Amino acid sequence: MDAKIKKGCGIGCLGFILMFILLIVIVSCQDKEEKEFTFTVDEFEEKFRENINKYKGNSFIELQSRKLVDGKYHINTMDAITVVVEVNNNGKVTAVYGVAKSNAFLAYNEELQTTYKAIIAGVDDTLGLVQQFSIMEQLGMTWDSKMLEINNVYTFNDVIYGYRGNTKDDSVILKAEPK
Q: What residues does each domain of the chain span?
């Protein structure tokens, strides 16, 4: 009889654990509120252009017109460097990516640095130059070949910055999204 009691308690405990796991799954699958910046793609593009002009120095950056590709806005700074802006249904920006092939990292290093600085300053215009460089430093942006194998995330002023360099898919990416 004692064996039946222990077995029954084990099944009851197992049922409780399964119900608890199911509850966690249901709660985690609920729609989460989409985070957004306070600006539209037009406002970001204007700030981005101003920052490019501010930082470009002698670089060869020439901004091309914005194009809508698969529901995302693409702004090319060069053939090998593209800024991708995602927006929600309200027209607010939800993420900004600076995407480049690794050959752009090698051949257009100054232009890529300028693009990334302009993205960081564009998503948070309260940052000074020292803070912008600090963010890039925290992400491991050393502007040498080590950057091709880095994957870092850093949060500052309620913006999550992520950087990934990957030789396998031949790309370097800086992402900024609201926390």
A: 1-30, 41-178
